[in-house]
Amino acid sequence: MSIRHGLLALLSGGPRYGYQLRVEFEASTGATWPLNIGQVYTTLSRLERDGLVAPEGADEQGRAVYTITEAGREELARWFSTPVAQTDRPRDELAIKVAMAVAGGVDVAEVIHTQRGATMRALQELTRAKRAATGGLAQRLVLDSLIFKAEAEQRWLDHCEAVSKEKNR
């Protein structure tokens, strides 16, 4: 996930200080990807270095306020208009684990069973979070995305189990 672009998107709505960006980012994503304040300021420093944001002085309480630059708006527009490719995502650790279990003679059924339990617990937590959500459309869409991914993982685990059983006959 691009924290960099998330902060640019928030700054496109007007100047903000670091803590404010952190709170708004977490509210928009349903606190699914919590940010520590150090990560926010490190990202702001890099965005400033790259000319995508600029300091705009301090607010009445002395907090450093940042604003998006024209180059930042262009980068944000490019990001929104570019689809996310499968190759841009990190490697799938679960697929690698199952493949290594198959290749290494590990009990694949046990690996699948352990993962299925964890995925089911995550799915239940996400469903509860969705019911309790009060953060608006952005939060709901993030939670829906995570729920759909967990459901897809359950289906893939079912497939892995079926194929493994069929192969062992």
Structural domain count:
2
Would you give the CATH topology of the largest domain?
Arc Repressor Mutant, subunit A
**CATH H-level homologous superfamily name of the largest domain:** Winged helix-like DNA-binding domain superfamily/Winged helix DNA-binding domain
Class from secondary-structure proportions = mainly alpha
Number of helices: 7
Could you spell the SSE succession in H and E letters? HEHHEEHHHH
What gap, in angstroms, lies between the N and C termini?
42 Å
In percent, how much strand structure appears in the residues?
A: 5-15%
Helix content: 55-70%
- CATH hierarchy: architecture of the largest domain: Orthogonal Bundle
The profile of the biggest β sheet is:
3 strands, antiparallel
What's the total number of strands? 3
What is the arithmetic mean of pLDDT?
A: 90
Structure description:
- This protein is mostly helical and 169 residues long.
- 67% of the residues lie in helices and 8% in strands.
- It has two domains: 79 residues, Orthogonal Bundle (Arc Repressor Mutant, subunit A); 75 residues.
- Strands 1-3-2 form a three-stranded antiparallel beta sheet.
- The chain starts with a helix and ends with a helix.
- The model has no long low-confidence stretch (mean pLDDT 90).
Itemize the secondary structure elements and their pairings.
Layout: H1 3-11, E1 16-17, H2 18-28, H3 37-49, E2 53-58, E3 64-68, H4 70-81, H5 93-104, H6 108-132, H7 137-167
Antiparallel strand pairs: 1-3, 2-3
Helix pairs in contact: 2-3, 5-6, 6-7
Summarize the structure.
This protein is mainly α and 169 residues long. The protein has helices at residues 3-11, 18-28, 37-49, 70-81, 93-104, 108-132, 137-167; strands at residues 16-17, 53-58, 64-68. The radius of gyration is 21 Å and the shape is elongated.
